[in-house]
Write the structure tokens for this entry.
Amino acid sequence: MLLQAVEYTDSQMTFWTIALGMGLVVEAAVIVLLSLLISLVADIDRNVEDVWSTAILVARNTATTWMLGQTAVATADLGTEVGLHAELLQSKVGGRR
């Protein structure tokens, strides 16, 4: 089967040239937009990693805050005990320094 060459009119050639030109413009726009999307996704990914690292550090720093009430009580008890030791030592030394 032989293919025959088709003759196009000037208006048909102009139409095809315009259509192909518009296709190239659309292709270039798609390439630019996809490049921007890739850049934005990489930026978001980097920032999400930073937020995740910060969240882990905050969780580590606040993991034992529930013990602050116990720490206050233990500190008061320790102060009382230190006072008793000081009184005992003062009584043994007799007020001398």
Q: What stands out?
A: The longest helix spans residues 10-61. The radius of gyration is 41 Å. The chain is about 80% helix and 0% strand. The CA atoms of residues 47 and 68 lie 33 Å apart.
